[in-house]
Amino acid sequence: MPETLPIAVVGGGLGGLTTAAALSRYGFEVHVFEQATRLGEVGAGINISPQATKALTAMGLGPALAAAGTAATGQIQRSMYTGEQLAETAFTDDDHPTGRFGAPYYVFHRADLLDTLVRALDPARLHLGHRCSDLVEHADGVTLRFENGTAFRAGLVIGADGIHSRVRQYLYGTDEARFTGQMVWRALLDGRSLPEGILGRHGFIGWIGKGCHIMTYYLRGREVINITTQSDADSWVEEGWSVPGDPDRMRACFPGAAPELQLLLDSVTQCSKWGLFGREPSTDWGHDRIQLIGDAAHPMLPNAGQGAAQAFEDAYALARWLNAGRDDPLAALAGFRDVRIPRAHAVQRQSLANSRLVHAGDWERRQELFRARERGGDTPLGMNWIYGYEPEAEWNVRREYPLSAAPVSG
Ligand SMILES: Cc1cc2nc3c(=O)[nH]c(=O)nc-3n(C[C@H](O)[C@H](O)[C@H](O)COP(=O)(O)OP(=O)(O)OC[C@H]3O[C@@H](n4cnc5c(N)ncnc54)[C@H](O)[C@@H]3O)c2cc1C
Q: Annotated catalytic sites, by residue?
């Protein structure tokens, strides 16, 4: 790659902005092209698990994250119907007041997290109102074409344009994301108007029902409460994958709720409704000068809270590989895929397994599994291997561990 050609990131979502921040930190000239005319995220919460915090911290974002997020001390799972406690996950303990997995587990208002990432970028390299419509590959680069009639020539293209990725479509043709059989309602409440303690001692409760669950947690300290529901659904008949919802219809989906949960649901005055779309895990993550990351590469159900977290791991690993492989960036991208694909696939599978376990009608079997994991020191959903991951130590550790292939340094 001629070193003079910049890197283009298509998509200014959480994954694209983080990738640009990580690459900029190593001195690359990176341009982000986002279709929207202003940057924004849905009004909802997002969990950033410890290993993703570690990746972001390694990019120099630790203090900004601490200022914008709320570090959760743990999470309790209750029955949606009786309120009975089913399990508890501690993110901190006496020996590890800032996080037993080596870093805080943060919750953010999505807009705050996005702002934090934007502030890490050069505004002159953030191109809004640029919807990528086509790509043309050359021997030494790629030209991006945009619907606004402009074009940009890059040495490498990072496709971070989400689940309905245009870059993915260019590479692999029609490969449409499919409805996963699950749908989501999202709402935000005024946290100060509800009784203190309604979200338990961690301020974070997951309510488990049959074929559904609801996550409720505080954001911005205790200012806002996030509600995200997830239910099995036969089909998705709405025109878009995100549409405004009706709070009464949202409430009607969860009959027989325990009193605290009912109070939360009754407080909803505005909500949105989402169909969850996905793809099977695939090794189609790009080739040559075009690399997919985030949901464009590995969409997953939100049952492990890992979609954005995996995009952050991608961003960090990608920057490390490209920095270490400046004289052969195509080999660096191949190395990135070699490391990231097995991990992202395993997380995609875990998200699916969590969904089946949490929504299973067989309470007793689930409780046995929760208890067995807790006895073994794991979280009820078996997340230790994900949270305990060390992006800085493992960015170039290949799964197969071929002794002949010396890791790249950098
Ligand atoms: C209900 C729900 C809850 C979730 N909770 C969590 C959680 O707690 N923790 C977690 O880690 N993850 C969570 N996720 C997943 C997470 O939101 C996604 O994985 C993450 O946002 C993906 O980021 P991305 O940048 O890859 O894609 P996106 O966020 O989809 O961003 C893609 C960007 O590309 C732009 N774009 C698209 N096409 C083009 C084009 N042709 N040209 C230019 N720009 C384009 C879009 O406008 C968008 O800005 C959740 C998801 C859902 C649905």
A: 217
